[in-house]
Amino acid sequence: LRMVHYKLTYFDLRGRAESIRQVFAYAGVAFDDVRIPRDKWPELKPQTPFGQLPLLEVDGAPIAQSTAILRFLGKQFELTGKTPLEQAKLDMVVDQMNDFAADIKQFMMVSIGFAQGDKEALYKDLFLPNRDKHFALLVKNITGDFILGHITWADIHLANSLEGLVSKMPDVLDGFPSLKAYMERVHNTPRLRAYLSTRPAAPF
Length: 204
Fold this sequence. Notes:
By secondary structure, this protein is an alpha+beta fold. It folds into two domains: about 5-80 and about 195-200, Glutaredoxin; about 85-190, Glutathione S-transferase Yfyf (Class Pi), Chain A, domain 2 (Up-down Bundle). It has helices at about 20-25, 40-45, 65-75, 85-105, 105-110, 120-140, 155-170, 175-185, 190-200; strands at about 5-10, 30-35, 55-60, 60-65. The protein has a four-stranded mixed β-sheet with strand order 2-1-3-4, with helices on one face. It is globular. It catalyses: RX + glutathione = an S-substituted glutathione + a halide anion + H(+). InterPro entries: Glutathione-S-Trfase_C-like, Glutathione-S-Trfase_C_sf, Glutathione_S-Trfase, Glutathione_S-Trfase_N, GST_C, GST_superfamily, Thioredoxin-like_sf. One of its GO terms (biological process) is glutathione metabolic process. Pfam families: GST_C_3, GST_N.
């Protein structure tokens, strides 16, 4: 059986590549984790399908867009739903989390110093109402240990997204004990626990 060669290119950050790295870690599959300095990006940008990172190359064939990469790896490593309906449920939950990320983008950009604005006002008026709305929907739709009966790429992505928020705002899951327990359940799987304890520090 020939080994598939995977090469993931991103900046030396967690960002949009971190869930992808964690899917590889959970699956126990080796990949080239290429982290480029920002000043190298302009020359690489025209060579990518959509002028953006992360970029996954599978035996040289490029795949862009982080959710498309995650979905592909979920299929490759059998970390997905068993039927089209189950797969749609994973997509549904991930799309919901992506909507939340889009809704709070202005607050996040200000909080990491990428944009100007009143962080406290954005937290109160933009972040909190969106957190309460979206997290309540997640609670309603994740009723078991995982989104489906077993861990999938979507659980790894969702738990990583939640953990990214917790790292910036330790009390963000207060009032949502089932989401906190869900995140910890995913991250306490042996391979992810090993990965998380050894990954390099990063600002985001």
